[in-house]
Amino acid sequence: MCELSPNFKSPKLLKNSKNLPNIYYLWKDKTLRYNCSLRRKDKCTASLKLHNDEVIIDDGDHFCEEHTDSSIQCIIAQQYLKKKVTIETSKSVKSLYNEAQTRLIHAQIPEESIATNLKSFNRMGRTLYNRKASKQPSVPTEFSDLHISGQYATTFKNDKFLQYDNKSTDKRIIIFSELLRILSESKFWFIDGTYKTAPRNLLQLYVTQRLVKNTNETLPFFYILTMDRSESTYKEAFGIKRYLSRIVANDEELFEHAFDDFLRQFNVNENFNNEIAQQKLHNTG
After folding, report:
1. What are 125-132's contacts with CB under 8 Å, separation 24+?
2. pLDDT tens track for 197-244
3. In which domain of life is the source organism classified (predicted)?
4. Considering the chain, what is the average pLDDT of its residues?
5. pLDDT tens digit sequence for 164-206
6. Strands 162-165 vs 54-59: parallel, antiparallel or unpaired
């Protein structure tokens, strides 16, 4: 919080996305104009214009309800949330909204005030999704122009996530994986090939899962995206996968026989189907 002047309408100031001070007002995009934050709710027409943190035009008086400390905190949280969805793009919009609510509760803002002053997810969800989408990279017209880098190639901990990309124009193979060592130490793998969840311009998604210890549940560890269903594509994809596993395990023979047996048994060809392959793969190391 900061102050414009001691005799201005209120010492309570908010910060907008342009980092300009704001009293009871919300910044209007691409202008120096600020409208009352209750313009829509209470149809308050008060507004002002700022330049270099100074008020140059003060137009109209407030006839809306007086803001409280709690309501101002909710307005701050709402403005911050709109910005956060464009920064933390890896998190879902709903989870970020829930986090905003939780922070207000931890700040001991009354639940009644939160319900009154923080828009419900149903009301502001569409705005948040649109803001997030505006920061997402567009799908290239030519898929060969797709370049995966930055946050899309690493994990939250900045570990390598994009393990392989052959950058082929017509037989593109992209492999994502983390926790390779855990996967390489597993005795049982489950391979699931699906078409419905493959991204645009890619035909098929393969997910490799492993059993969770002492349970019947599985977790995904390896993702293979392909543009076609040819035998050569499958051999390249699974060959790279085997190679990556060997590097992590420091054992040249690890999984080699397992993948050879897998390819022979299923006789991979153009008609490779979409059924789940639950093949027991023995660790040969």
Report:
1. 125/93, 125/94, 125/97, 127/82, 128/81, 128/82, 128/85, 128/93, 128/96, 128/97, 129/93, 131/82, 131/85, 131/86, 132/85, 132/86, 132/89, 132/93
2. 787 778 888 888 877 777 777 778 788 888 887 778 877 877 765 655
3. Eukaryota
4. 69
5. 888 888 888 888 887 766 666 666 777 777 778 787 778 888 8
6. unpaired
**pTM value?**
0.49
Neighbours of 259 (CB within 10 A): 18
The token pair that represents 19 in the structure block = 């980092």
In tens, the pLDDT along 47-66 reads 666 665 555 555 566 655 66
| pLDDT tens-digit readout, 136-158 | 777 777 777 888 888 788 887 78
Per-residue pLDDT tens over the stretch 82-133: 888 888 877 889 999 999 999 999 999 998 888 888 889 999 999 999 988 8
Exposed / middle / buried, residue 224 (Cβ in 10 Å: 0-12, 13-18, 19+) = buried
Here the tokens at position 160 are 């390598």
